[in-house]
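Researcher: I'd like a structural prediction for the single chain below. Treat it as a standalone chain; there are no partners to consider.
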Amino acid sequence: MTQHTKPAGILLLLAILLLSLNLRPAIAAIGPLIQSISQDAGVKSVGISLLTTIPVLMMGLGAIYAARIRQALGERGGITAGSALIAVACLMRLWADDRNGLFLSAALVGLGIAVIQALLPGFIKRNFGARTSSVIALYSTGIVAGAAIGSGTASWLEDQLGWLSTLAGWSLPAALATVFWLLASHGSQHEGRSSVQAAARSVPFWRIGRCWSLLLFFGIGTGAFMLAMAWISPFYIGLGLGKATAGLLLSVLTVVEALTALWLSFAIGRFPDRRSLLVTSLLLVAAGFLLLIVAPLLAPYFAVSLLGVGIGILFPLSIIVAMDHLKDPTLAGNFTAFVQGGGFIIASLVPLTAGSLRDVFNDLSYIWLLMSIASLGMLVLAVRFSPASYQQFQQDLAELQTGELKPA
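Model: Treating it as a single chain, here is the predicted structure.
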């Protein structure tokens, strides 16, 4: 349990929220700016998808090496470095008026996000104990709220400042979050650099079958989040809606996501068995994508709201369920990083696949259908994530650490 006084705990919560708000705007702002980026930087649909795919791929690679990052930088120092890197990468975009500059800044943004996402869940569990699930949900709320702000303000800011300054402007809140984090996290519980203890508890999670189930689950859930964020606005522009209306639909989706995730941060304690929430979220996501296929213009706000509620539950829960499996903060952090690493790599392929299909067929219905099928397929995994199954996982982990577990 945390040793913080109540005021210090509140400041730390605020610092975590500020950090999380900066984990998606640099990516979310791309969608509403597609036309300008395509015209001025000569980037086609696949290239636009890469501006989303590259950061997500970097998130995956960063999560895979979470244990090493923790050993090299420590939790507090690593999170500080990640936030500072986001600020620098966004500022670079002021001069990134060609595809190479945009791709480089996307990679650096992704690396900064990766370091924070790899280290922050373990830090939260270490400092908030029994409240970890609620704080993780609040952290996820910040992520989707940041996406809502980034996408919702992009078109207006572009009209005022131009698209380069719109993208670069996110360096300021990232820099402010970095400073606030340094102040608020002073005196917090965190694992430092070159920890022998952390190295000793580096575990080959890939040998346990449940790890792959959680990895796939996180990948599909995050893929749905990234797909909606990148392509909802261009999809509706392609159907003939104005840029402002298409941007508003994306804003509605992300605001609904944020409000749903915020609700989850308060309600999660009433659901010790997460399966009912997981099943509900998957059905809503599948229904939302199917509605985009069969009747996208009949009730567009209803369609994006279905997606918003579904993803708003699914995205944070995919992290919470992974954290549920372990009590030790370092092990839980490394395990969650393993799940996120592979999951983000899977998720990075979703927007890229969407861009490729759009270039070939001039239609996004195929990717909506694929995501609907994938969401329904995840129901098979969701019903297996019972609290009782965590004990079997912990037993498998203990056997793995003593060398008694056979490969999955």
